[in-house]
Amino acid sequence: MNLSELYRLRPLLLATMLLILGPCTLFAQRKINLTKFETPSARLVFLDPGTSYLVPHTVRAFENALAFHQQFWNYDPSEKTNILFNDFTDVGNGGTMVIPWNYLKIAVAPFDYTYSVVLPL
Fold this sequence. Notes:
Blueprint: H1 3-21, E1 35-38, E2 42-46, H2 55-73, E3 81-86, E4 93-97, E5 103-107
Parallel strand pairs: 2-3, 3-5
Antiparallel strand pairs: 1-2, 4-5
């Protein structure tokens, strides 16, 4: 086979590989079990049932903070705020996104204080 014949076979080989290997990726997918807790002003979504004990405290803290900001700033949200609990990382952190959606992302993991402790000499 010369080089021009290989170039002509390339689309056929690519299509064959996609037909053979494409369905194999479906076995790697698993059904994601999302749990949702809603209030009139918030929608909290989490994956791990082990974090469900944090839901009442988080919603209560959010509702208290929202009530304060509504009164202090005269803020009226146009939609529910989405709160995502995740345990994807080994370090706890959080972030917000307000444009174009009201969205909070909270990583529910312990903080890593291993290297932040400095002992006096």
